[in-house]
Every structure is written in C-alpha cells, then in structure tokens.
Amino acid sequence: MAHTQAAAAPLTAARPRLRAVAPDEVAGLAQVADFLPPGATLLPAPPHALPTLPGRPPMVGYLVLLPADQQPPAHLVAPEAQIEQGPVTIDSVQRIASVDGRPLDLTYLEFELLAHLVARPHRVHTRDQLVTTVWGYGHVGDGRTVDVHVARLRRKLGAEHRHTIQTVRRVGYKYTP
What we know:
A hairpin with a 3-residue loop joins strand 9 and strand 10. This protein is of the alpha+beta class. It has helices at 2-13, 26-32, 108-119, 127-135, 143-157; strands spanning 17-21, 40-44, 61-65, 82-85, 88-91, 96-99, 102-103, 125-126, 165-168, 172-175. The chain contains 5 helices and 10 strands. It has a 4-stranded antiparallel beta sheet, covered by helices on one side.
C-alpha cells in the first residue's frame, strides 16, 4: 500500500497548480514574485478563461506554479508588448495598431481581433475560435460577427494590405504577412 502512494506522489507534484487571483491580490503578488519558489511564474490569463463566482469580484489572472524544468503552456503566456509581422505592427501596451507606420483607428474589438491574428501568422482560425478568444465565452452571436469585423479591418488596412487577412472558405481566417 505504501509503495502505491509513494509512486503516485511524483505524478501529482509535477502537475501545474493554478489559483485564480482576485483584483485586490495583484499588487501584493507582484511584490512577492521574487520570493516565489523556482519555476513559479505569475502570468495573466485570457479574460474569458477565468472563473466567475456568484457574489465574488471578477478574477484577473493566475498564479502558476511549475516545476523549474517546464515552460508554461503557450496559451497562458502574456503576448509580447510589440509584435511586427509584415506591414502590421501591434503595440499592446499603448494599444496602437499601425500598417506601414500609419496608425489605424480601430475599435476595441477590431484591435483585439487584429492583434490576435497578427500574433499567430499563417494559422487558420475558425469563426467559432475567434468568437471564443476575442469576444469571450459570454458573447451571444455567430460567425457573421467575425465576418463583419474582418471586412472593417480589411477596409482600414487599405487596398494595398487588405489581402494580409485571408479567408479560408467554410472555415475562417488567417493573417499572412
């Protein structure tokens, strides 16, 4: 019996442990980040991935504890502050998108959609994936919402660069710099 318990312990110790972080905990966690054990990382989480509890404040991130020899999953890593793919540059800190150095006048969702596509060039995204990722799970709508926003983005990118967001028939869209 003891042999079975000892064998199971390493398996659970190697698994990442997650804890939702409330808004009032963020400042305190940033101050103690240097004191976390090796391999522990404080990572923001996509807003739609955070749990919501009735009567509780919304969560803002996760504290992820990983063994020192493991990397965090890609979907938990914060995007780079500035991404440049082809003619489009996304500055997520200042929330500015530009094409060939010309700033674009984008709505909140247009910026989020363009930033998501540009951060993952050549990857095909279904309309449902985009609605889930950009709009969040709580969004009520269909894939036509994505089509309308992509049309607006193409118009704002201009005739010279509208082709960078390509339609994949009956599937969705991809960004090709």
